[in-house]
Design brief:
The chain is α/β, with parallel strands linked by helices and 251 residues long. It has a domain of 175 residues: Rossmann fold, CATH 3.40.50. It has a 6-stranded mixed beta sheet, sandwiched between helices. The chain has a 4-stranded antiparallel beta sheet with strand order 2-1-4-5.
Amino acid sequence: MLEIKNLHASVGEDEKKPILKGLDLVVPKGEVHAIMGPNGSGKSTLSYVLTGRDDYEITDGSISYDGEDLAELEADERAAKGLFLSFQYPVEIPGVPTLTFLKEALNAQRKARGEEEISAPDFMKFVREKAKVLNVSPDMLKRPLNVGFSGGEKKRLEILQAAVLEPRFLILDETDSGLDIDALKVVSDGVNSLRSPERGMLVITHYQRLLDHIAPDKVHVMSAGRIVASGGPELARELEAEGYDKYVRAA
């Protein structure tokens, strides 16, 4: 589903700084892969490159998504094709109610795919069912997007966005950041409800605790801009116990 070969990427408006330095990764359809690594290893940069963020430039290598060259698509085109990024620090949008944001985002994607827009009554029924699973109250849906929300509330809303948009490939960038135990359980349950044979996921995290709740099919260690080790869930437990030092030295 997602195949990355020898990916090199730089960031910066004027003087470009190389971040990704020959990264290879394959995530088949229906699988959940986790990427772990120390700060500065390039994990978030990878998520931004995949989703087409400005100022992130691919300098070598390729990204294939369902057989299509992802680098040729603009960010909105990637989203319309089912690519979804859950941010480490969700953005606040004052003046835009959460319900309005969700409805406009869903209808924009439907329009891009040549589908009819969803009616207001059907949307309200649909989003309320999804919100109930994630403990997102009607009051939260009426408030401006992420404004005044706690870290846990923001993360629950991001997973609600994924549940509403029903993407084909999810990238979760440190979704566990700032979550207490209860919020982590709610968010993880929401993510697990999105697992599907037709959907792939890439979970980016520092800590093994998230992977206790979202069991990955494969774990990759990232250091110095590339994947330096891969294994099963036991690799995450090894990293929790021993740290990243030996992988950083090897990189």
